[in-house]
Amino acid sequence: MKPTVKDVAKKANVSPSTVSRVINDHPSISDDTKEKVRKIMQEMNYFPNAAARNLGKQKANAIAVILPPLDSKERIGNPFYLELINTVNEAAHEYQVTTAIASAKTMEALLASVMRMYRQQQVDGFILSYSENRDPVAEYLIANKIPFTLIGRPAQQESAVTYIDNDNQLLGKQATEFLIQKGHQKILFASNVDEEVLFFERYFGYQEALMRAGLTTFPAATFTKTEDFTNFPNLIKETEATALVVIDDVFALRIIQLANLHGLVVPDDLSLISFNNSIFATLVHPYLTTVDVDITDLGHLATEKLIDQIQQKPVHGSQLVVPHELIQRETVIARKNA
């Protein structure tokens, strides 16, 4: 038979209301009493009812990770989000907080889910895992002063948002510079998204590196429609590209498949560098040369800063930058005429 609050109170020689205050960490109870009651709770294997405890505190003791609309196979299968959820879950556990997921196929359904979760007090705050232009979810969170942290750089009202990010413009610049150092002069930037802030930042970094080197910059090669994939061999032929900077590891694998389909071999015909250093980077050959964005650090910091907001602690600085590291593997080779 499961022990009750009255059982714990009787053994600790205190009132049931005192046990309830200990459970809620009420400041009116001395540290000695709290320690004694908690020790007895542990000995009796007593676990307080979370719903009852949170009702008194008007807290859900839960946070949610908001995923972008899962409207493509690349997004559904992107390990970045799975790794992020795992990291946030581990960090939340340290604060005795549970983790929920907000996901949907469309932006409209995603917004409805986020609104419902917060209005029904299912969660106390959110970690927004993406940043897009004209995002109604971000607008809702900001307008209603709901605690949230963003992984990425805000597309709007930057001063009103606490965000954790890599320096994505620097990432794009350094990835491109790495290809230039290997003797590549005709370099493309390839992406399957064109609205996310990290797309613009990484593409700007690509442009900066090429302009500094006095080399030609090309319009971003965005693959958002079927005809974009069909035009791939013509694009390579017209630009005489020998290397690509690709938006992330998952899409890099798609580019490798596309190249092979048209008789181009990576890295012999096309060198390729991507971002995230996900599990896919070493699942198939050639292993991806990629930039590690330290997802673990991103998730831990996002959780920590969200908990600070929920607990109404001062949040020092609206922006936190996580370091990155370029990992050399097999998809980049030096040009023979370099």
TrEMBL record:
Keyword annotations for this protein, in alphabetical order, are:
DNA-binding, Transcription, Transcription regulation
> Could you tell me which residue ranges the HTH cro/C1-type domain spans?
4-47
In this protein, which residues make up the domain named HTH lacI-type? 3-57
> What domain of life does the UniProt record list for this protein's source?
Bacteria
Any Pfam family from its record, for instance, is: LacI
Query: Which residues fall in a coiled-coil region?
Result: none
**Name this polypeptide is given:** LacI family transcriptional regulator
| Higher taxonomy | Bacteria, Bacillati, Bacillota, Bacilli, Lactobacillales
